[in-house]
Amino acid sequence: MTLIEFIQQAVKASAKSIESTIFLLGEGCTIPFIARYRKDRTGNLDEVVIEKIAKYSELYEGIVKRKESILNAIEEQGKLTDELKTKISNSYDLTEIEDLYLPYKKTRKTKADTARENGLEPLAKVIMSQNANDITSIAEKYINDKVGSEEDAIQGASDIIAEWINENMYLRKSLRRKFQRNSIISTKVVKTKKEEEGAQKFEQYFDWSEPTYKIPAHRLLAILRAEKEGYIKFGVGIEREEAISFITDNVVKGANQCSQIVEKAAADSYKRLLEPALANEALAEAKEKADLNSIGVFADNLTQLLLGSPLGEKRILAIDPGYKTGCKVVCLDEQGDLLYNETIYPHAPQKETTMAMKKIRSMVNAYNIEAIAIGNGTASRETEFFIKKIAFDKPVQVFVVNEAGASIYSASKIAREEFPSYDVTVRGAVSIGRRLADPLAELVKIDAKSIGVGQYQHDVDQTLLKKELDSVVMKCVNSVGVNLNTASKSLLSYVSGIGEKMADNIVQYRSENGPFESRTALKRVPRLGEKAFQQAAAFVRVKNSTNPLDDSAVHPEAYGVVEKIAKDMKVSIGDMISNKELIARIDTKQYITGEVGILALQDILKELEKPGLDPRRSAKVFEFDPNVKQITDLNIGMVLPGIVNNITNFGCFVDVGIKESGLVHISQLKEGFVSDVNEVVKLHQHVQVKVTDVDLGKKRIQLSMIL
C-alpha cells in the first residue's frame, strides 16, 4: 500500500491534493500557510484536512519503520519465512503486525521457554495432534534430570500448548473483537479508603459497571483517577466461561486424554495470557478514545477562549480584587504598557471606601481611562458594585474578566522579564487588563493547561495534549494576524514559520532598531531566511507602512499581481482598498499566474474589500443579577443572566456571578435531543439560566436553559 492510498483510507481528498500537501509539508511549509496561501495547489483543503494528512503521513512512516525493525529481528533469529515476510510486508494494521511478531518477540523467559529447553516441545506436538491414546506412557520418555515425572512432562507440554493458543492469530483476533464489543468495566470501592474526604467525589464509582465501548470519556478518566488515588479498584473483562468455550471449540478435536489436556491448557492460556493482555488492550483503546475526545473538547474550548472578543487598543484600568490584602489597581495605555499601579482597600476589614473611590476617579481622569476590567475571583462582585457607584466625569465601560491562569502568568519567567521591578500582584492585574484588550495576545503567555477550560486535562496523554493545544494556539494566532511592532515574543513565537528563537531575535532587533517600517524589513532580522519570511510575512501586520498591503492578509508574493490590477484599473493600491464597486469589476481570470491561481485571487479580492479585518467580535458589557452575590442567595426557579465559562461533553458550566459555577446538563440545554454541546452554546456566550437545584453542602448548582 502506498502512502497516498494509506492516507485516502482516513481522509476524503484526491490523490493529487494529498500528494501536493505532502510535498509542501516536506518543504517545511506550515499548516496555516498551506491552508491560506496554497489553496490552488491543495485543491482548497482546509487546516483540519491538512492536519490529518500530516498525522497519517507520520503514522505511515512509523508503521514502515516498525515493520522493518520486526522483519530484521525475526531474520536475526533465522525464522523469517517468505510467507511470514509477505504477511508482515502487506499489513498496515499495527495490531495485526504485532500479533504476527508475538511468537518471535524477545521478552522475559516464559514457562513455555523453560519447557522447550527441557525438550518437551515434541511431546506438546503429540498432545496437540490429539491422536495418541496413552499419553502417560509417551510422556515417560521425556523424563530427564530436569523433568522429574510424567506429570511434570505433561505440565511442561501444556505450558507450550497454552502459549501456542495465545499466539494463534484467529483466536486472538476473535477474542479481541469480543472485548471491543462486549467487555464490561466494573469498579469496587477500597473499603479502607471509603470514608476518606477525597473519596466522596468518586462516590458514584464505588460500585459501578457499564460496557467499555459505551463509557463516556469523562467517566472513564474519573474512574482512572479514582483508581490512581487508591479509592477504587476496577477491571475490564468479558464472560470468562464463554471465552474459554470459544477457544476449546476451536482447539479441542476429540474426547481422549490428549483432548482433556488441551482443554485444560486452553483455560490456562485464557486466564494467564489472553485475558490480561486483551483486557489491557481494550482499556488502552478506550483510554485513547477518551483522551482524543477530551483533548478535542479542550481544543474547541481553547479556540473559543483565544478568539474571545477583544476590546481593542483602549486605555484600561484593571483591578485584581481582594479583601484583606486590598484590590490591586493598574492603569494601562493603548498598547497594554503599565502607566501606574496602586492598592486600594474598599472592602472589609479596612473598608476605606471613600478614599478608594477618590483614587479610582483620579486615576480614570489622570490616565484618560476608557474601560475598567475587574478579575472574576475573590471579591469580584463586591468590587464591581463598588466601581458602579462611582460618578465618573465621562462614560467608562465596566467589564468582569475571567482571570483563570492570571496567577500562573504573574509568577512566570515571561512576567518577570516584562515586569522585573513589580511583584506578582501587579503582574496579575496587568494580565487581567490586557485580557480585556486582546485575550489572544495575553493568553498565549500562559500554559494552555492552566487556563481551566478542559475536562480531566491532567489525566490525558500529555504529549498529545500539548501537541494539539500548540496547534490550536498557532491556528488562532495566524487566523487573526499580529502587529509586528507591538506583538510580544510569546505571540510572535506562534506565527507561522517563526518559533521561539526567531521571535526572540525579532523582539531584540525591534528594541535595538525601532519599529519595522515594512514587512520586507523583517528580512533584516538576523538568521531570518527566505523560507521563514515566506511562511511568516502574510501573518504579520505593519501599520502605516508605505505599502498599504503590509497591513493586510495579502501575501508579499502576490503584491505584483495586485500592483498589475491597480495599474490596469488606473488607480493606486490605496484607492482600490475598501472600494467594493471597483473590486467587483475586476476579472480575476486575467491575472492567473503560475504562482497565483484563481482561489488565491479570490482571497486577495476579499481581503482588499476589508483589509486586516479582525475575525473576532467586539467585547460587550455584561451584567450579573445584582441580588446574587453568593450561593446562599440562590433559590430554585430563579432565572439569572450568566456567562458560559466551560464546556464538556456532558454539558456546560455557567458563571452566574458567584464563586461556584453552575452545571447545565446536556439534557437541559434545549428542548429535544442534543448530541454536541457546542451546537447549542459557545464559550463566553451570554445566556439566561434557571436554577433547578442547589446543594449547599457540596456547593453544587444545577441549572437549565429550558426556561
UniProtKB/TrEMBL annotation:
Gene3D superfamilies cross-referenced by the UniProt entry: Nucleic acid-binding proteins (2.40.50.140), RuvA domain 2-like (1.10.10.650), Tex N-terminal region-like (1.10.3500.10), Tex RuvX-like domain-like (1.10.150.310), YqgF/RNase H-like domain (3.30.420.140)
Domain of life, per lineage: Bacteria
Matches recorded under InterPro entries: HHH_9 (IPR041692), NA-bd_OB-fold (IPR012340), Ribos_protein_bS1-like (IPR050437), RNaseH-like_sf (IPR012337), RuvA_2-like (IPR010994), S1_domain (IPR003029), S1_Tex (IPR044146), Tex-like_central_region (IPR055179)
Gene Ontology CC terms, in alphabetical order: cytoplasm
Domain S1 motif: 637-706
One record GO biological process: translation
GO function term, MF aspect, one: structural constituent of ribosome
Pfam families with a match to the protein in the record: HHH_3 (PF12836), HHH_9 (PF17674), S1 (PF00575), Tex_central_region (PF22706), Tex_N (PF09371), Tex_YqgF (PF16921)
Protein name (database record): S1 RNA-binding domain-containing protein
Biological source species: Myroides pelagicus
Organismal lineage: Bacteria, Pseudomonadati, Bacteroidota, Flavobacteriia, Flavobacteriales
